Amino acid sequence: MTDGLPRILGGRYEVGELIGRGGMAEVHLGHDIRLGRTVAIKILRAELARDSTFLTRFRREAHSAAGLSHHSIVAVYDSGEDTFTETGGADIDIPYIVMEYVDGQTLREILNDEGRLSPDEAARVTMGILSALEYSHDKGIVHRDIKPANVMLTKGGSVKVMDFGIARALADTGATMTSAQAVVGTARYLSPEQAQGETVDARSDLYSAGCVLYELLTGRTPFVGEPVSLVYQHITDPPKPPSTYEASVPDAMNAVTLHSLAKARDDRYQSAAEFRADLQAARTGAPLSEGATAVFSAAAAAAPSMMDHEPQAPVAPARRDHTREIHDREPQRRLTGLWVVAGIIALLAILGIGYLVMNGGKGDNPTATVPNVVQKSEAQAKAILRGAGFDHYQVKEINSSSVAKGYVVGTDPTRGSTVDPTTLIQLNVSKGPGLVQVPDVTGKSVAEARQALGSQGFQNVAVAPKKVDDTEYSAGDVVSAYPAIGSMADPSQKVTLSVSSGKVHVPSDLTGKDSGEAQLAVLQANLQPKVENVPVSDEGQGGKVLKVSPHEGARVDKGSTVTLTVGVYSSQTTVTVVPPPSSTSEPSSTSSSSSSTPTTTPPSTGPESPTQTGPPLTPPGKTKTHKK
Fold this sequence. Notes:
Layout: E1 8-9, E2 13-21, E3 25-32, E4 37-44, H1 52-66, E5 76-85, E6 91-100, E7 104-106, H2 107-114, H3 119-138, E8 141-142, E9 151-154, E10 159-161, E11 168-169, E12 178-179, E13 182-183, H4 192-195, H5 202-218, H6 227-236, H7 251-260, H8 272-284, H9 290-302, H10 332-351, H11 353-358, E14 368-369, H12 378-387, E15 393-398, E16 408-412, E17 418-419, E18 425-430, E19 436-437, H13 446-455, E20 461-463, E21 478-482, E22 488-489, E23 495-499, E24 503-505, H14 515-524, E25 528-536, E26 545-549, E27 555-557, E28 561-569, H15 588-595
Parallel strand pairs: 15-18, 20-23, 25-28
Antiparallel strand pairs: 1-2, 2-3, 3-4, 4-6, 5-6, 7-9, 8-11, 9-10, 12-13, 14-17, 16-18, 19-22, 21-23, 24-27, 26-28
Helix pairs in contact: 3-5, 3-8, 7-8, 7-9
């Protein structure tokens, strides 16, 4: 605060108390004055603001997460930079990110408090993580740092994945996980390919999610030890089944977990959707995928003692429920009541009354009520329909921005309808929002870009306030767009255009370079080189750039001429001695005159050497003679 007033960022975000701190940034509770909502504000630590590496990573987080809109991903609302005055009086720009405020705890905090979760709750939470990854992977973004500290659980039990700070586009072919011999990510959750510094893809996230699932089930990660030891274990050691450390983990959950932790990425789950489907199957007792079954069978054959457990009732961990489930310890009288109700229903069925009740009292025209399956997965919805007596159904995929991909938006007939059980029920399943590819508008004027974007349904188009230097495009032409050109985006999303200033900088370090190398650098900067040669007596300066105009680093118009003053070396004059004349030669005075005439070897000249004046010079190695 200044003079008792709260700190305001961007003219609208009031910075409140510190609620979190990481190695790179601090997170404050904030208030959006304009919209009147609570937000979280992540601010880069001041001491790191001068470090280009941290600045790049922090800005990349904002760009990576800003285009992700999903119920299981912490939303990024805005970003910007705030000028901060240091103690010495120098001003420095501190970037910040405005995010959705999540009222809850990280999985790391929950595991620290409770040790582990029940198998069903562990699967549910992991499914939420996978739902977020499925969405980000479809957008071309790999998270690359999935771990309990980057996953939050709200007080209502919702899963929220955060911190896309080291995410990269899948198309970035140079996106390996090593930088200056350092492995990015947390060692306990690294995929084998990350540990070896190879290029990562979506399946690397799935391995990390498998490590998180393992820890949720058992209270420990698949491998433990020092960071260097962990790296080798991820690469070489097969993980033990979770039930080795926690007997309550069922075999189906063992199979899913081990399949997600396969060393070769081709051997593990190939998509978040596959992983999530197997988790749901493990929860409901449905058959698992062939891959999960095969991995578990192989593990059982290799170490059968790991799979053999004495039958025992699972011991629930000391934990609170994160979903609205019925508690196990109900009063005994309620159990007695349930038995009484069950007995009455059985008696009604025996007497034939139950048949009439279940069929609306119509006898010859049985009916059933369409159950509510909205927000259920496709597999869950089908199971619920079968349980309600509906064996005929079909799936129709539709666009939906409010329901996650793969989950039911609604049914036809609608829920609550009383129909014949043989009626065909249509399940309308979300295929996510209707996404459209952002067209290529680079090199176009803003008006032309707006027209091209509008033709694809993008009506909300803005221009970034700061123009971009050092591009190949003329002033006013579009340089790039966000969301990125070629990416898939919701047409309702705002598209921000970055526009060229038409200004470029004269390359630095031209002085002292060879003439050809310097000319190429000038051309690559979208400028025009002009060479002016000057003679030099120092052979080392021959062919080198001596002067640049305008000066190096100058900000000039694209296409401007840059004059390179290049040295041309001239060799010293040489004298060739003429042999003595014979007796038949001209008089001695003539010979003497001839012999004293020097032979000049001119300097090597190129097409752009200074123009010679006066009589032509004799070519090297030849003697010029005079005849009377």
